[in-house]
Amino acid sequence: MRGFKEPGFADRQKAAQQARQSIVQKFKSQPGPDDPEVVKRRAEREAAAARREQQRLEREAAKAEQKRLDEEAKKAEAARLAREAEEHAARLTEMEAESCASGYVPKSMKASLRAMLDWQEEDRRRAGRPIACRTCGRPQPVKCFNCGRPQLPPSKDEADA
User: Fold this and answer.
1) Residue 154 belongs to what H/E stretch?
2) What is the pLDDT of residues 32-91, one digit of tens each?
3) How many H helices and E strands in the chain?
């Protein structure tokens, strides 16, 4: 390798100066902020951002409307169930009065009346007690302070066990 000559200090300085000059030329050749192409691209970016924001607002409005409709449907369903329960209780009371008047009460009616009264008593009893943590069993108002999990009222199966 006799032909290879190590670059000297002057050669390295000259190469560094050329690199700096090429960087300056590259920077100067870029369009300025008032160039029509730059202005056009900036306007396109701003329009796209405005469209995205408008779509986000529309999605949020649709979600809020759906949530409102779901809540209305839940309220209507709860009202329907309450009305049906009242009608059922009224029918049972009428049937009980008729059967008492005649002196005959079928076993199935006695059982259904007992079940209805048991459910009403169970609902009254549950309304008065605090919610218990499913993990540790301690009574907790909303979430267990012992384990930190949010708690729901126990199901009918858990209450019977």
Assistant:
1) none
2) 888 899 999 999 999 999 999 999 999 999 999 999 999 999 999 999 998 988 888 888
3) 4, 2
